[in-house]
UniProtKB/TrEMBL annotation:
Predominant localisation class: membrane
Gene3D superfamilies on file: Gnk2 domain, C-X8-C-X2-C motif, Phosphorylase Kinase, domain 1, Transferase(Phosphotransferase) domain 1
Membrane topology: Single-pass membrane protein
GO MF annotations, alphabetized: ATP binding; protein serine/threonine kinase activity
Protein name (database record): Receptor-like protein kinase At4g00960
Chain spans, region Disordered: 637-658
Compositionally biased spans, kind Polar residues: 637-647
GO cellular component: plasma membrane
Length: 658
């Protein structure tokens, strides 16, 4: 795709159909529409179309944007539209706007009435959707484009191509919030030169950008192996390489394979040139010192100016994201039938939860927060924005919020099967939880916590994990809910302290209750209690065991020590005490140990659940232990430490379960 053949090609994807528009004779595409999946549409002439036209036209008419990346939103609720546009990193502003003009015309013509669509042109991409797309890594839909011409020397070509793409991917991922782009070239033995680029939409963080591009490098082998050119196109990132120069310039980020080192000169010649070399070295050193000093001064002022600009752009991005999450109060009131009791799903310490239905037919869960919060509107919006960016199949998704005088409302996805609390403790419904379902729920909760602790953009500690905060979808997959007491950590922060202890007694670890210290191991302790409740169908609070009062941790530990583990399991489980059941009891006891350092991380817990070959250490006594007073042999100094019962109930009840 040389510069002498600069005609554009377009791939338009309306999330319904694939319609290619191109005039590149060396590339082959499927002709005609291809049905991909069902999706929503809008009516010609309605407010959604008006917002869409206005939003897309604002990109190509924005003369103040010199970065080549555009993102914004228009409208509210069901007529809200979010859009992103990205130009190739080497384009001038005029070339970028020309490409956006042409792309938006084609997009609106060929994807009319579609509520979400994407188009890739050779130098730019435009994407819009009624869903939140800013800051979300998206690798689907995926398109491959390759040249029909084979490389002259495929083996040598591959040896040069893969390292070149890897280097460019890393360089692009380290870009800032304005541009994540890298381009370069490298010679192939035999005369060909590979020109390549890697690019992400700048709303991706370094980790997500790197992951997207690295996966694209591996896909190059599948789609374009041994070809002279190829592209991998995704909504969040793209790769491209050719044997001819298709970029405007690669001067700022060249990647070259070093040329062979020339042979050393003969001794006689070296002697003749030694004096000249010494003179040249002195001059070069002096110039290097001078240039270094001047460059350092220039670099200082440039960094200072750039930091100010980055702060301004980040504030702008935050405002756009907040706007895309905000719902109108009248829309929420209408969806819940004015917060009627008939739609009420539950009542907790932080407010009531209602079932709602939007005008587009989508069901939502609406949490109307109590009015005693001292948090300001700006802090509330910031926290909502962070939680809304958490996306995992085992987390309840926060769709948005609503702010009105005296009202703070959170809008969540609706999960139909209410809470785990309803199933494991209800005398009629907990029989529906066979072992396979319970094991799936335990594994899903563990993966959701691992995402919060290690894989999300911010390290988050839930602090109130319990059965009523685990919702179940139609397939009985668990979703962690209610982040009202969650705490945000920086990724290198390991623990914190608080003067305000919030949570549910019995689930809170002793270091948190006594000293106010919290870390990811607080959630691990919560998880251990939850596992034992799921296995036994007994609450953590004290229960009658024969003639004695005993809490669940003490009961589980005593039976573990007495080799009567079968007593811990719910009698409704008739499949016998299998290896998985034994491992889950073992893991639960490891998680509730008194010593914080002895508790496993959630990454270790997930490994223990996924592989029976992982060796489990022996657990020590639980943090809260009530000595059984009926001739137990559990004695000694190591058994007489902290004694705290778990029978005090919290004010914080189910998030939205009947």
């Amino acid at each position: 795709m040389g510069s002498s053949r600069s005609m554009l090609f377009f791939i338009t994807l309306c999330y319904y159909y694939l319609k290619p528009y191109y005039v590149k004779p060396q590339f082959k595409f499927a002709q005609g529409p291809q049905n991909l999946r069902d999706g929503p549409d809008y009516t010609t002439g309605d407010k959604y179309e008006e917002n869409l036209n206005s939003l897309l036209s604002s990109f190509s008419s924005n003369t103040q944007n010199h970065t080549g990346f555009y993102n914004s939103s228009r409208g509210q609720d069901s007529i809200k539209i979010n859009a992103i546009a990205l130009c190739r990193g080497d384009l001038s502003q005029n070339s970028c706007q020309a490409c956006l003009n042409k792309s938006t015309d084609i997009l609106l013509h060929n994807c009319s009435n579609q509520k979400e669509a994407i188009i890739w042109a050779e130098p730019c991409m435009v994407r819009y959707s009624h869903e939140v797309i800013f800051g979300s890594k998206q690798e689907d839909p995926l398109k491959y484009v390759h040249s029909p011409n084979p490389a002259k020397n495929p083996q040598q070509f591959e040896v040069v191509l893969t390292p070149l793409l890897d280097i460019l991917s890393e360089r692009a991922a380290t870009g800032d919030s304005l541009k994540k782009f890298a381009a370069g070239h490298a010679p192939v033995p035999g005369g060909e030169t590979i020109y390549a680029l890697a690019q992400c939409t700048p709303d991706m963080d370094k980790k997500n950008c790197s992951t997207c591009l690295k996966q694209s490098v591996t896909e190059i082998q599948t789609c374009c192996g041994e070809k002279q050119g190829g592209r991998v196109l995704k909504p969040s990132c793209n790769l491209r390489y050719e044997v001819s120069l298709f970029l405007k310039s690669t001067a700022n980020s060249l990647v070259d394979i070093p040329a062979p080192v020339p042979a050393a000169p003969a001794p006689e010649e070296a002697k003749k040139k030694s004096d000249t070399k010494q003179t040249v070295i002195i001059i070069v050193v002096a110039l290097v010192v001078f240039v270094t000093i001047v460059s350092s001064i220039c670099f200082f002022f440039r960094v200072r100016k750039r930091r100010v600009k980055l702060e301004q752009d980040e504030n702008s991005e935050e405002i756009n994201l907040v706007e895309s999450l905000q719902y109108d109060f009248e829309t929420i009131r209408s969806a819940t039938d004015d917060f009627s009791d008939a739609n009420k799903l539950g009542q907790g310490g932080f407010g009531a939860v209602y079932k709602g239905k939007l005008a587009n037919g989508r069901y939502i869960a609406v949490k109307r927060l109590s009015k005693n919060s001292e948090q300001g509107d700006r802090e509330f919006k910031t926290e909502v924005t962070l939680v809304a960016q958490l996306q995992h199949r085992n987390l309840v998704r926060l769709l948005g919020f609503c702010l009105k005088a005296g009202e703070r409302i959170l809008i969540y996805e609706y999960v139909p099967n209410t809470s785990l609390n309803h199933f494991i403790f209800d005398t009629t419904d907990h029989a529906h939880l066979d072992w396979e379902t319970r094991y799936k729920i335990i594994g899903g909760i563990a993966r959701g916590l691992l995402y919060l602790h290690e894989d999300s953009r911010h390290r988050i500690i839930h602090r109130d994990l319990k059965p009523s905060n685990i919702l179940l979808d139609e397939d009985m997959n668990p979703k962690i809910a209610d982040f009202g007491m969650a705490r945000l950590f920086f990724m290198d922060q390991t623990q914190g302290d608080t003067q305000t202890i919030v949570g549910t007694y019995g689930y809170m670890a002793p270091e948190y209750v006594v000293h106010g210290r919290f870390s990811v191991k607080l959630d691990v302790f919560n998880f251990g209690v939850l596992v034992l409740e799921i296995l036994s169908s007994k609450r953590i609070s004290s229960f009658r065991n024969r003639d004695n009062e005993e809490d669940l941790l003490s009961y589980a530990w005593r039976n573990w020590r007495n080799d009567t583990v079968a007593n811990i399991m719910d009698p409704k489980l008739t499949t016998g005490l299998g290896i998985e059941m034994m491992r889950c009891i073992h893991i639960g006891l490891l998680c509730v140990q008194e010593n914080v350092a002895s508790r496993p991380s959630m990454a270790s817990v997930v490994s223990m659940l996924n592989s029976h070959s992982v060796t489990l250490s022996l657990p020590s006594r639980p943090a809260y232990f009530l000595q059984y007073n009926s001739g137990s042999d559990i004695t000694g100094s190591d058994e007489s430490n902290i004694t705290v019962s778990g029978n005090k109930k919290s004010d914080f009840t189910e998030p939205y379960a009947r």
